[in-house]
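Re: Re: ligand-bound prediction request (bumping)

Still looking for help on this. To restate: I need the protein modeled with adenosine-5'-triphosphate bound, output as structure tokens. Inputs repeated here so nobody has to scroll up.
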Amino acid sequence: MGKEFESDLSKVKDEALRTVMEAAAESWRRPKSNVLPFNKTTSAADRYMRLLHSGMIGRMTDAMVDAVQLEKLTETKFTKAIAAWVAEEKSPIIMLCGGVGSGKTVAAATVIAQFGGLFITAHRLLRLFSARFQSIDWQDNVMNANTLVIDDIGRERPTEHADLASALVEVLDSRQSWYRRTILTSNLDPTEFTKVYKEQRLHSRIQETAKVVTSNAGDMRRKKNA
Ligand SMILES: Nc1ncnc2c1ncn2[C@@H]1O[C@H](COP(=O)(O)OP(=O)(O)OP(=O)(O)O)[C@@H](O)[C@H]1O
Ligand SMILES: [Mg+2]
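Reply:
Sorry for the wait, this slipped through. Here it is.
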């Protein structure tokens, strides 16, 4: 895990898989004039509205909403990595792996505040893609959001891991055909992640297209209250 998108695809042995990956890599590199541009705001009021529209506000404390809106966050490994990921434009996906309170959701919020997008938990994503629910409108929103955050991957029930992995492959494949950013967060580290999700297609997507960032920063909620 953790290789950059420009990695050497010739190492992929399965020819069919390599062809698909090469096509995906090509689509990511193609001129971006045919898709919605990322529209960065420099206004604090806009940052607030973008957080609000994404559905993120309720997931953060008021103090954190203020800090993101006013760009007054402390730098963490995640905030630095995510800012670099946006600036580099090398990979369509970033995966933030870290324990409880390590700052994953807050780091994701910085991108949503600047560019707008949609926030969804893995748990909710599962519901949207379940056969019983099948909300086409919401699936479209998930596929089309310029920036999508899928939060808390790994917190679903063990019986739901397989369904989530399939939904993730579907979402990542669809989004990858366009210039769209996807932020994944997980409390699993990359090794645990590989063990928990048996879906090989998910691992190959992440291996070839994602920047994977792991932090073992402790729980910042606890430090604050200490
Ligand atoms: N960049 C930051 N600057 C200042 N405080 C931060 C920052 N990132 C996180 N925190 C503090 O840590 C708390 C937890 O952050 P966050 O919700 O992003 O963690 P998390 O990794 O998503 O945790 P969980 O696994 O429980 O979802 C925040 O409410 C805030 O108090
Ligand atoms: Mg979180």
